[in-house]
Structure formats: C-alpha cells, structure tokens
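Kindly inspect both lines:
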Amino acid sequence: MRLIFIRHGDPDYANDNLTEKGKREVECLTRRTCKWENITQIYCSTLGRAKATAKPTLDKLNKTAIYYDWLQEFPTWHEDSNGEKLRTWDIMPEVYCANPDFLDKDNWCKNDYMGKMIPERFEQVCKGIDKVLESYGYTRNANGTYSVKNPVPNHNWNEPIEKYHLK
C-alpha cells in the first residue's frame, strides 16, 4: 500500500481558500496526481483550502473524496498552562533542544509548551488514521506498529517502485 500525504496549496487563511499562488500550485499538482495509476481512495480535510486543492484532481479523475474533520491541521495558537498564547509550530531550536520530550515519539506533545489541546488533537488524528488503515487490513498492535490481517488486495503491491515511489 502507498499512502501519499499532500498539504493544501498556499493558503488564504482569512477566507479559508487558496491564494493566487496556491491556485497555480494546485494546477501543477493536478497535472502530477492525474498521472498516478490505481488511486484507490482520496481522503481530504473539511477545510476549504484542502477541498480547493483536491477538487481539480477529483474532477479530472471522476472521483469523490472521503472528508474527515480530523485531517485538519492542528490549531496554530493555543494557551499554555500559564494562560499565555503560544504558536504551536514555531518552536525555536533552543526550546525543543532544552526539552528532551520534544524528541520523544510518545511525549513530544505532552508538555506545557503544547498545552492541552495538541495532545487531544493528536490522539484524534491517530485514531482517525488507525481507522482508515484498519479498513485496508492494518491494525495497530501493542508495540505501536501495525499487524496485517486480511489485507485488502491492492494492485500496486506488485508494481516496481520507481524514483519517489510515484509515476
């Protein structure tokens, strides 16, 4: 199975859409994605900028997407335990290098800097991804990896993998 994650084009956050640059990016993306063979399913965030990014490909391939709220990006601003507003993803190196939890796969979001909202959203995303993977026969086990039980046949499994795993 091949999973390909695509972030939306250059965003116009104020209008939850794309900028002119983002629309040009989507034109290039659409040309590329429409060349890929055997696309089984397209999943998309419910945000307008994500829908605007996916729509041209969906239209050209005559496909529909499955939309999930949990595919939205994490909130940019949140409050820490002292009530101070912090920007979640603009962490400076001196902050994460001073806190070993940021480099720990299980604890990166469990600290005062991330606040309370990020761990909750992260858990929602993990559960959402796990549910999608279960539909293809992959189940998260106690080790945090995936066991394959009754995999859904995928015609891409036997194809040679070319540069970047894409055509």
